[in-house]
């Protein structure tokens, strides 16, 4: 190949190299955030910024104004996260309850609670595969492991929560507030939860009574006909929530509101702030009729409709156990009659 031909081939390469070098230099001058070049004025005008100021900050605001800022998660045990992941259904729903030593004693609430799934209709025993039981002390944890496969020992508590705590005592209040923190952790991991108190008896699948429109679904002590009406009396013995940014913020706000009402439980605080939650977060709340999620506050023993039954409005563990045993026998009789008919 002649030298002339080589030079002809080199010439366009040389031109391309020079062109690339000039373009790169111009790019650095125009877009370098630290540039003092007179082209800064051009850069601001071209990007749409108005007046003097830090162009980089202006662009960051432009690019992030529609994004939800990342939310720092509270410290949590990876074992709890792993357990939630294992227990969750395919659509990332999980069932959660809490138990302490008093409620896990032989023939106490834990046994009655688990038995109710086996006595229920529609083969609800499979829901136990998606239940995580949070033990509030070591003895409850040992009992849980002997009867169930997803048991988590919650050690980060401020009081001794092993005994039957007197209603509205400090230990009782500490106990009930722990669940709201756990709810928040579950949502932050991207899972929805159905929380149930350990003294709620399950007869049918309660998920059937949860509306898809609602952000938050809550049981009631007293239900007055309209599932969206805040005049219904809420009961946090059964709560369902979706893993949305809105719900995470709602739970944070709920927990922070404890400072305004330091001597009361999470249910009363919710009752005090429910209108705030609805307006501040545009929260869609569903209150479930006591026809389906029943209790002793507004007694209803229509077994053709009941999915769960909660012995709220009864004070004392022994009294609750006695009434639940009566209710369980009545349910078994209903089942035997309905099977024959």
How many helices in DSSP terms? 11
Backbone shape: globular
**Number of strand elements:** 10
First-last Cα distance = 102 Å
Rg, rounded, reads 30 Å
Derived from helix and strand composition plus strand pairing, the structural class reads alpha/beta
Q: Uncertain runs with pLDDT below 50, 5 residues or more?
A: 1-72
Mean pLDDT, as a whole number? 80
Give a verbal description of the structure.
There is one protein chain. 45% of the residues lie in helices and 14% in strands. With 341 residues, it is of the alpha/beta class. The strands form two sheets. The chain has a seven-stranded mixed beta sheet. Strands 5-10-9 form a three-stranded mixed beta sheet. Helix 6 packs parallel to helix 11, helix 8 (170-188) runs antiparallel to helix 9 and helix 9 (245-256) packs across helix 10. It is globular. It starts with a helix and ends with a helix. Mean pLDDT is 80; it is low at 1-72.
Defining traits:
11 helices; alpha/beta; globular; 341 residues; single chain; three-stranded mixed β-sheet; 10 strands
Task: Write a short abstract of this structure.
With 341 residues, the protein is of the alpha/beta class. The chain has a 7-stranded mixed β-sheet. Strands 5-10-9 form a 3-stranded mixed β-sheet.
Summarize the topology.
Elements: H1 3-31, H2 40-47, H3 55-64, H4 78-87, E1 93-99, H5 101-104, H6 109-119, E2 131-135, H7 138-147, E3 151-153, H8 170-188, E4 192-196, E5 201-202, E6 216-222, E7 233-241, H9 245-256, H10 266-281, E8 285-287, E9 293-295, E10 308-310, H11 317-340
Parallel strand pairs: 1-2, 1-4, 2-3, 6-8, 9-10
Antiparallel strand pairs: 4-7, 5-10, 6-7
Helix pairs in contact: 6-11, 8-9, 9-10
């Amino acid at each position: 190949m002649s030298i002339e031909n080589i030079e002809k081939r080199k010439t366009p390469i040389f031109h391309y190299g020079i062109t690339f070098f000039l373009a790169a230099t111009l790019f650095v001058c125009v877009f370098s955030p630290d540039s003092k070049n007179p082209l800064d004025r051009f850069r601001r005008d071209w990007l749409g910024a108005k007046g003097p100021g830090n162009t980089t900050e202006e662009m960051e605001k432009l690019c992030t104004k529609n994004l939800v800022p990342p939310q720092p998660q509270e410290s949590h045990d990876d074992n709890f996260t792993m357990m939630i992941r294992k227990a969750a259904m395919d659509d990332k729903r999980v069932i959660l309850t809490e138990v302490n030593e008093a409620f896990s004693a032989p023939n106490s609430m834990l046994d009655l609670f688990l038995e109710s799934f086996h006595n229920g209709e529609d083969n609800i025993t499979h829901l136990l595969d998606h239940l995580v039981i949070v033990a509030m002390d070591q003895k409850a944890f040992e009992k849980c492991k002997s009867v169930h496969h997803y048991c988590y020992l919650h050690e980060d508590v401020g009081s001794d929560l092993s005994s039957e705590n007197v209603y509205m005592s400090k230990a009782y209040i500490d106990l009930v507030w722990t669940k709201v923190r756990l709810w928040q952790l579950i949502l932050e991991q991207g899972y929805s939860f159905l929380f149930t108190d350990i003294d709620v008896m399950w007869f049918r699948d309660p998920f059937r009574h949860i509306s898809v429109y609602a952000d938050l679904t809550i049981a009631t002590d007293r239900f007055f006909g309209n599932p969206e009406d805040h005049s219904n009396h809420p009961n946090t013995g059964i709560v369902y929530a979706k893993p949305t940014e809105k719900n995470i913020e709602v739970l944070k706000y709920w927990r922070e509101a404890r400072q305004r009402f330091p001597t009361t439980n999470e249910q009363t605080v919710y009752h005090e702030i429910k209108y705030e939650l609805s307006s501040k977060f545009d929260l869609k709340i569903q209150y479930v009729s006591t026809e389906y999620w029943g209790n002793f506050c507004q007694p209803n023993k229509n077994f053709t409709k009941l999915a769960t039954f909660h012995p709220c409005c009864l004070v004392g563990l022994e009294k609750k156990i006695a009434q639940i045993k009566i209710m369980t026998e009545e349910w078994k009789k209903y089942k035997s009659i309905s099977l024959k008919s």
